Amino acid sequence: MTRAVCGFLFSPEMDRVVLIRKNRPEWQAGLLNGVGGKVEEDEFAEQAVAREFAEETGMRVDHWRAFCLHRDKSHGYEVVYYAAVGAVESARTTTDEEIVVCAVADVPHLEVIPNLRWLIPMALDPEMKHARTVWADAP
Fold first, then answer.
1. In this structure, what is the dihedral angle of CA atoms 88, 14, 72, 51, given to the nearest 10 degrees?
2. Residue 72 DSSP SS3
3. Sign of CA dihedral 27, 37, 121, 77
4. Which residues touch 22 (CB under 8 Å, ≥6 apart)?
5. For 83-127, what is each residue's pLDDT tens digit?
6. Domain locations along the chain
């Protein structure tokens, strides 16, 4: 089973978010997604999101909060995190995939992975006190 992480870095006002324009896998090519990747065998999910974010944006962010465990039978599971810092504009492209800082209000109108339209509002929901498990293909 694949273990993956995805992180959304917000400005302190929670009105801007760091996303990445994906080149791969093919079904994500050209679309914006959160920053993340696979969890390595010897690391915890929170370590993986910090590592992936640093590798792909050049920013070290250590205070991630899990808000969703996204599971599906065909792809495994993904732990989704968010954080907020004052330096979102410092995120830069360090790979062949473009880093984009965009207004949260614009996300529904952008070419994004479809689940961002509910994951980002879920991260911003003040009632989210504990992480939720979401099945992509409910039994």
1. 30
2. strand
3. positive
4. 28, 29, 30, 31, 32, 33, 97, 113
5. 999 889 999 999 999 999 999 999 999 999 998 999 999 999 988
6. 3-135
Neighbouring residues of 40: CB distance < 8 A, sequence distance ≥ 6: 48, 51
How far apart (Å, rounded) are the C-alpha atoms in residues 112 and 26?
A: 14
Domain 3-135 is found in CATH 3.90.79.10: yes
> What are the Cα distances from residue 123, in Å, to 45, 74, 104?
17, 24, 11
* Peptide bond before residue 114 is cis, with ω within 30 degrees of 0: no
pTM summary value: 0.90
Integer CA distances (angstroms), 106 to 42, 120, 125, 129, in order: 37, 11, 17, 25
